[in-house]
Amino acid sequence: MELTIQTFLIVCPLVFLAGLVDSIAGGGGLISLPAYLLAGVPMHNAIATNKLSSATGTAISTARLCKNKFVDWGVALPCISMALVGSFAGAHIALLASDKILKWMLIPVLPIVAFYVMKKKNLDDNSNVEISRKKQWILCAVCSLAVGCYDGFYGPGTGTFLLILYTGVAKLPVAKASGTMKLANLSSNIMALVVFLFSGKIVIYLGLAASVFSIAGHYVGSGMVMKNGNKIVRPIILIVLVLLFIKIITGM
């Protein structure tokens, strides 16, 4: 496709905003993917190029959260490996199948998830819940496999789903869940990126330019997570879920 100044002016600022949101609670793809489409990038190229910019940005926020000890390394390795396997499968399915079935499956799921987040006023309220380390390990691995497959196949809201599952199902503290979620999300992003790279669908120059803005957004957003923690994560999750529901219903 032919790239113009207007293409970059539409994509880059919105990718910065997407990186900011994504580093806090996931769901940046709800902003960045429509940005590519708005700039006239064809659908398959938009999905592939979006993986490039989101993966580079996610790498920065992940590194920052790891450096500041916002990762539960005891469950991080199985999360990474399962996210890679799931994303590999999902990305290959995405090249062959329509995403309409998965979209319709999400319609009843999203309101339930949003209700859960609204009802659970504090995502970090796991101090009185007893769960064995082995069970926590298994639950995180299974959740990462499922959501990794979703990320490779469709994508928007991946980080949000991981964060909700890690805190709600595996009972990780929200601070540790944020960093661990980023590692799993980065892994699934990279695997899907490799698959799309070999398919030749990535618009390289646009993706590299957008990556710079994605990195900036993720850097700022990860700093906000470290300072405000649960106070900022919960409202952002609700916003992401509402946007994803609207996106699916309207067929954007």
TrEMBL record:
InterPro entries: TM_pro_TauE-like (IPR002781), TSUP (IPR052017). It is found in: Cell membrane. It is a multi-pass membrane protein. Signal peptide: none annotated. Keywords: Cell membrane, Membrane, Transmembrane, Transmembrane helix, Transport. GO terms for cellular component: plasma membrane. It comes from the Bacteria. The chain crosses the membrane at residues 73-95, 101-117, 160-178, 190-220, 232-250. Pfam families: TauE. Belongs to the 4-toluene sulfonate uptake permease (TSUP) (TC 2.A.102) family. This is Probable membrane transporter protein. The lineage of its organism: Bacteria, Bacillati, Bacillota, Clostridia, Lachnospirales. The gene is yfcA.
